[in-house]
Amino acid sequence: MVDDEPTFRHRQVTVAGSSLHVVEKGDPEAAPFLFLHGWPESWHSWRQIMTMASRQVRAIAIDLPGIGESTGEPTDGSKRQLASVVHGLVEAMGLRNLTLVGQDVGGMVTYAYLRTFPDLRQSVIMDVVIPGIDPWEQVLANPYLWHFAFHSIPELPERLVQGHQGEYFDYFYNAISADPSKITPEARAVYARAYATDRALTAGFNWYRTFPQDAAANKEANSQVTMATRLLYLRGEKDGGQMNDYLDGLRSAGLTHVDHALVPNAGHFTQEEAPEDTWRLIAEFSGI
Fold first, then answer.
1. For the domain that residue 255 is a member of, what is the CATH number?
2. pTM assigned to the model
3. What are phi and psi of 282, to 5 degrees?
4. How far apart are CA 50 and CA 8, in angstroms?
C-alpha cells in the first residue's frame, strides 16, 4: 500500500506536562478511532490502517509520551498513568463515542483506560497479555520473552541499546513477525529515530519496569466492578499462545462483552503485517 503521507494532519497537543504528537486522517466530523502503538514502534505503525480507516472514520494516532515527537514528561511508564494522559487528550480534542485501539503496550494502556474511564464506545486490544490477567504468569515464565526481565533492569538496557537501536529492534521484527519484510526498512528507520534519545529509550523501557505495578492495579480494578464496554481481542494467527487462554482471562476479570478474531498470516505486528485484514476485522466489529 502506498503511504499517502501528505494527507496526514500533524499537530502537537499539550496534556499533563506532555506535548503529544497527534496524527489524523479522514473527516474530522466522523466517528473517532484512536490508535495506540506498542514497543518498539510509534504512530507510524498505523499509517496503512489509518489510510483505509479514514474512508469511513476519523483516524487518529499518537506517539505515546516520551516517544518520537511526543515530548515533555513521559509518565512513570505505568499503564494507568499513560491511560490518564490519553484520557486528557480525548478531553482536549473533544472526542465523543470513541473507539480506542491498542496494540502491544498500547493494548495494555487500552485495558487500563476502559477500567478507569467510562467514556469509550468500544475498544480493541491486539497482540498482548494484560498484566495481572491470565495468562500473565504463564507468559512471564516463557523463556522466549527474556526481554521482559532485561528491559526491567534499571539503566542497563539504555546503556547497551543506545546507538544500536536499529540492530536491537530488528531482532524483534524478525523473530516475532510471520513475514519480517512487512516491517519495511523505511519503517524500521522511523522507529529507530523515535527511540533515538536516552529519554525515549527510558520511556519505552519504563513500560516494562512498571509491569508489577500494572498487575497490582489491574487485579484491584478487576475485584471492583464488571465492565460492559464492548471489546474485540485480536491476535495474529502466528503470534503464538492459545486464544482461549486470553479470552478466559479477560472474561474472568469481569469483561462481559468480549469478541475475538485471529488475523490471518500475521505474527505479532498485525497492523503492519496484515493491515487489510486487521482493519476489516475492526470495521466488522464496529458495524462499519
1. 3.40.50.1820
2. 0.96
3. -65, -40
4. 9
Q: Count other C-beta atoms under 10 Å from residue 163's C-beta.
A: 10
What pLDDT score was predicted for residue 210? 98
Alpha carbon distance 288, 284 (integer Å): 6
Give the position of cell 513521559. Answer: 74
The pLDDT tens digits for 41-60 are 999 999 999 999 999 999 99
Number of domains in the chain: 1
Tell me: the pLDDT tens digits for 68-93? 999 998 899 999 999 999 999 999 99
* CA distances to 23, 82, 204 from 76, in Å: 24, 8, 10
Return the amino acid letter for 150: F
Rounded Cα distance, 200 and 103, in Å: 19
Q: What share of the chain is helix, strand, coil (3-state, %, to 5)?
A: 45, 20, 35
β-partners of residue 285 are none
Tell whether the model's pLDDT for residue 2 goes beyond 50: no
Domain range enclosing 168:
5-286
